Amino acid sequence: MAGSFFIIGMIILTQTVVGILGNFSLLCSYIILHVTGYRLRSTDLILKHLIVANSLVLLCKGVPQTMAVFGWKHILSDCGCKLLFFLHRVGRGVSIGSICLLSVFQVITISPRSSRWAVLKVTAPKYMVLSLFLCWILQMLVNVIFLFHITGKWSDKNITKEKDFGYCSSGLTDKTQHALHAALLLFPDVLCLGLTLWAGSSMVLILYRHKQQVQRIRRTDASSRSSPESRATKTILLLGSTFVYFYILSSICQVLLALFDQPSRFLVDITIIIAACFPTVSPFLLMSQNSSVQRLYLAWIRNAKSLLL
User: Fold this and answer.
1) Residue 183: exposed, middle, or buried by beta-carbon count in 10 A (0-12, 13-18, 19+)?
2) Distance from C-alpha of 110 to C-alpha of 229, rounded to nearest angstrom
3) Which of 281, 224, 263 is nearest to 22 (CA)?
4) Which of 181, 217, 262, 303 is the most exposed, fewest CB within 10 Å of its CB?
5) Which of 170, 134, 137 lies closest to 152, judged by CA?
6) CB neighbours of 264 closer than 8 A, spacing ≥ 6?
7) DSSP 3-state assignment of 132?
8) What is the mean pLDDT of the chain?
9) Residue 1 has what DSSP assignment?
10) Do the beta carbons of residue 33 and residue 293 sit within 8 Å?
């Protein structure tokens, strides 16, 4: 049993280190490209917020959970535990919101000029900063509830029933109150997930119609695939589908956690591993699809080789 917990701890540690390095390097790449005069797309601002949110998820959950798996459960005070859990939930919510905003803005960007979304092509980018700001504020307000229910291992509160989350615990409320809290927390997630699925299906339909038009005027498919809008749309579709897949798996685990008053350590750890998959994988998906970032990395590698030689 100790061996399985050691393996789980190493998986969480590897996810955390790889994910943080991936997100940090991608964020540095965007900053360098911006400083050097590269014209970033309007959706790149959303991607920066997504990177920050993913980093919060990995730092505030992966690091303390790794310590808890290896036996260091009592290193956080009550306030520290509340803050980490709160920041993790905010980062998770902003990550979901960023994927939603990214998908919706891309649908507006690639929509035909004859569509009903044409009027939003000019006005939508103006509201991007406000939308991201509201996303952060909304998640802070919704998840402030965890500041009252999450306690650290050092807490002196006399709680008769609690759920153990490794480095933190949560006092069990009555079922009616628990249901209200769950509904409050799920509503933004379900709304964002629904908009993401709608935007993804709309992007697929727009790309399909565009391909049909290209075939009718006897052009090669390469002209469609090589357009910047088409490449960006396919990248966002790949990112969105990856997010939906891991979100569904994570939601299933969250439901299982909610069903048990005392969930097993194995279930808690597996839930954390699945929840950390998207923040870990997403920066590498974006790197693989962004030619400007790839050229920047190749330049770094050439410079490093020249210095070593």
Assistant:
1) exposed
2) 7
3) 281
4) 217
5) 170
6) none
7) helix
8) 79
9) -
10) yes
Any idea which residue has 């996810």 for tokens?
15
Alpha helix ranges (H) inside the chain: 2-35, 44-57, 63-69, 78-110, 120-123, 128-142, 146-149, 175-216, 221-225, 228-259, 265-275, 277-289, 291-308
Question: Rg of the Cα trace of the chain?
Answer: 22
Q: What's the mean pLDDT in 258-268?
A: 74
Residue 186: count of CB within 10 angstroms of its CB: 13
| Positive/negative CA dihedral, 181, 82, 159, 68 | positive
Buried (b) or exposed (e) across 108-140, using 16+ Cβ within 10 A? bbbbeeeeebeebeeebbeebeebbeebbeebe
- Token pair, residue 47, equals 């991607």
Which of 293, 301, 286 has its CA nearest to residue 51? 286
Between the two ends of the chain, the Cα-to-Cα distance in Å is 49
Query: What pLDDT was estimated at residue 108?
Result: 87
Say how many residues make up the chain: 309
User: Which pTM value belongs to this model?
Assistant: 0.84
Q: Is the pLDDT of residue 269 over 60?
A: yes
And the tokens for 165? 């989350």
> Which amino acid is residue 80, in one-letter code?
G
CA distance 38 to 35: 7
Tokens of 86: 């709160």
Share of residues in the chain with pLDDT > 70 (%): 79
Q: Which two tokens stand for residue 172?
A: 């069990």
C-alpha–C-alpha distance, residues 270 and 122, integer Å: 44
